[in-house]
Design brief:
Blueprint (H helix, E strand, L loop, with lengths): L5 E2 L6 E2 L2 E3 L6 E4 L5 E7 L2 E5 L11 E4 L4 E3 L3 E2 L23 E9 L2 E2 L4 E5 L1
Parallel strand pairs: 1-12
Antiparallel strand pairs: 2-9, 3-8, 4-7, 5-6, 5-10, 10-11, 10-12
Organism: Herbiconiux oxytropis
Protein name: DUF4232 domain-containing protein
Amino acid sequence: MTDADTYAAGANPQLSFTIQNTGAEACTINAGTSQQLYTITSGDETYWVSADCQTDPSDTPALLEPGVVVSSTPFGWDRTRSSPETCAATDRPQVPAAGASYHLNVQVAGITAPDSKQFILQ
């Protein structure tokens, strides 16, 4: 999820996910940052991957009751490209904006969201 569909120049998207147990019984899933993977793409190009520069990943067991939607805590994406080689850099390049369209893909505990979330950067 993103907190908006379109972002004005300088506004950073807030990224999060929701998860729902569609079964009949309660279940537990590790939904911690060690199990979360956020990927931002545009066309065939990958611009940002949350695991590239992640520090201190944690495990967080979550009890999912049947039919209850649980949301993660949102965090901001600073509109920069990522790669493991640039984690310490303070001048990572900004991604194109001015109406550029991006897609957020999320995976939690090996479960990939069925659809990406499209958003626009102005």
